[in-house]
């Protein structure tokens, strides 16, 4: 990584006995779309608040390029911010909202007017400039909030669950737009969310937090395909977990023993002594007629989702496993009580480290 | 609209209160209007006399001035209190609210008398100032407009605080945070983002205090000592001392109309419905 635009060093924030941030180190590259992902209470919002300057970490430091900003008030950090619930100022028109960051920076009036028009055009909201925020729909308010955050050309944009108040379809549309905007402007985005789909669809890099600590970070595909802990495997997408013991290892392949089954698992860099569990994505499981695959099972429940079909099967010793298969090529017609067989490829299993 | 049974229920709930209001308020008020136009002779004589009297004019001007200054004082002090409670009290909020409401448990009469004990010639304030050698002879702190204003502001303060507090507690702290995150200093964020949102609360507080102050009697009468004759006390004089029911009633009618005018003018600037009725 070249010199990071923002770096957090050893940040600690305690609330009583609870560590909201527990020695967090984070570097953000210039122009990156970075997502802080975690369940509520994981510290992601605390970390963003510390970066934005709304809270001060008890220990550690935050640097913006070469400048230490740990103790700087929020208005001196020059970050664009988009808030959960947008926080558009209800007493100002859309135009004045977008102009606000420029006005407090005492830019000349002509420049403000031009820049406001430009930013509203960027989010296709020009025709709403004279409306009040209350007269706009959630999605429109979201766009205005974005225009307002970008109006003064910040180097870094902080987004705190900006899509959480919108309905599912709109959220999906705005994900595309946000990503396009990011690519178009080259601004660094630091994005907080608890929604794994948002994180996966937009980010260059995802940082997964839990109990104030960074659990794992990496590109979306890397995290999805190679989670290191059960927490990550379960939080990012769905996973089946199988307790195993590694009986032998050869050429990067583990021979695993599970209750009532034995199979091979690609080591993927894990060391045999640490592995006691593997994760298996539901979409990597195959469903077939009895005898065709290596594990016999019985269908317990079927959930039809249109493009996909989710099937819960039970195996005598392994218990319940979730299988997700495309409806157009299931091969069999699963229904409750049907005996089937299931199988998977060697590289479908991900060995997990104890967390 | 209403279904029949709903309508019945509506009236059944409203009627007792309505009956009390009509019998003991509307009806007597109409009686006062009648007296104003009939005593001692039928006609507008009382109003002519009122319009020509410089004492009445002085009293009206005084009443509006005292009400205006009281309102201003209550707004400034009340805004600070409401702001502090809604933004910084945290866990202490219920206690603070209780302290704001506590004065309502003590009668206005007692609160006003307490001010006499404090502000009198040999009251606590003057005694303390003399004992410390700051003054030689006692200051005139009451039986003048100053004393009336001090006590009025004290009595009216909760009426200013409560609507402002309700309004401020409804303002999410996200707005100020957003403003600061976008580059505004604390003061700019307050002035341009927070304060405009509190204007409805300020307006309803102002209206409440001003209207109540216009007709206030006990406190000005006690602290003014007969020297600060606000209109309600003037009316009492006319009726109790001079048995001049006609002029007294005419003044009441005038005060009522003046108050109604204030509300009408205010309605041009404030949404009265939301200011006085539908507080969130």
TrEMBL record, chain A:
<dbReference type="InterPro" id="IPR017871">
    <property type="entry name" value="ABC_transporter-like_CS"/>
</dbReference>
<dbReference type="InterPro" id="IPR013611">
    <property type="entry name" value="Transp-assoc_OB_typ2"/>
</dbReference>
<dbReference type="InterPro" id="IPR050093">
    <property type="entry name" value="ABC_SmlMolc_Importer"/>
</dbReference>
<keyword id="KW-0547">Nucleotide-binding</keyword>
<dbReference type="InterPro" id="IPR003593">
    <property type="entry name" value="AAA+_ATPase"/>
</dbReference>
<comment type="subunit">
    <text>The complex is composed of two ATP-binding proteins (PotA), two transmembrane proteins (PotB and PotC) and a solute-binding protein (PotD).</text>
</comment>
<protein>
    <recommendedName>
        <fullName>Spermidine/putrescine import ATP-binding protein PotA</fullName>
        <ecNumber>7.6.2.11</ecNumber>
    </recommendedName>
</protein>
<feature type="domain" description="ABC transporter">
    <location>
        <begin position="6"/>
        <end position="236"/>
    </location>
</feature>
<keyword id="KW-0472">Membrane</keyword>
<comment type="similarity">
    <text>Belongs to the ABC transporter superfamily. Spermidine/putrescine importer (TC 3.A.1.11.1) family.</text>
</comment>
<dbReference type="Pfam" id="PF00005">
    <property type="entry name" value="ABC_tran"/>
</dbReference>
<comment type="function">
    <text>Part of the ABC transporter complex PotABCD involved in spermidine/putrescine import. Responsible for energy coupling to the transport system.</text>
</comment>
<keyword id="KW-0813">Transport</keyword>
<dbReference type="InterPro" id="IPR008995">
    <property type="entry name" value="Mo/tungstate-bd_C_term_dom"/>
</dbReference>
<keyword id="KW-0067">ATP-binding</keyword>
<dbReference type="InterPro" id="IPR005893">
    <property type="entry name" value="PotA-like"/>
</dbReference>
<keyword id="KW-1278">Translocase</keyword>
<dbReference type="InterPro" id="IPR012340">
    <property type="entry name" value="NA-bd_OB-fold"/>
</dbReference>
<dbReference type="GO" id="GO:0005524">
    <property type="term" value="F:ATP binding"/>
</dbReference>
<dbReference type="InterPro" id="IPR003439">
    <property type="entry name" value="ABC_transporter-like_ATP-bd"/>
</dbReference>
<keyword id="KW-1003">Cell membrane</keyword>
<dbReference type="InterPro" id="IPR027417">
    <property type="entry name" value="P-loop_NTPase"/>
</dbReference>
From TrEMBL, chain B:
<dbReference type="InterPro" id="IPR000515">
    <property type="entry name" value="MetI-like"/>
</dbReference>
<dbReference type="Pfam" id="PF00528">
    <property type="entry name" value="BPD_transp_1"/>
</dbReference>
<comment type="similarity">
    <text>Belongs to the binding-protein-dependent transport system permease family. CysTW subfamily.</text>
</comment>
<feature type="domain" description="ABC transmembrane type-1">
    <location>
        <begin position="60"/>
        <end position="266"/>
    </location>
</feature>
<feature type="transmembrane region" description="Helical">
    <location>
        <begin position="12"/>
        <end position="33"/>
    </location>
</feature>
<keyword id="KW-0812">Transmembrane</keyword>
<keyword id="KW-0472">Membrane</keyword>
<feature type="transmembrane region" description="Helical">
    <location>
        <begin position="60"/>
        <end position="85"/>
    </location>
</feature>
<protein>
    <submittedName>
        <fullName>ABC transporter permease</fullName>
    </submittedName>
</protein>
<feature type="transmembrane region" description="Helical">
    <location>
        <begin position="97"/>
        <end position="118"/>
    </location>
</feature>
<feature type="transmembrane region" description="Helical">
    <location>
        <begin position="146"/>
        <end position="165"/>
    </location>
</feature>
<keyword id="KW-0813">Transport</keyword>
<feature type="transmembrane region" description="Helical">
    <location>
        <begin position="243"/>
        <end position="270"/>
    </location>
</feature>
<dbReference type="InterPro" id="IPR035906">
    <property type="entry name" value="MetI-like_sf"/>
</dbReference>
<keyword id="KW-1133">Transmembrane helix</keyword>
<feature type="transmembrane region" description="Helical">
    <location>
        <begin position="201"/>
        <end position="223"/>
    </location>
</feature>
<keyword id="KW-1003">Cell membrane</keyword>
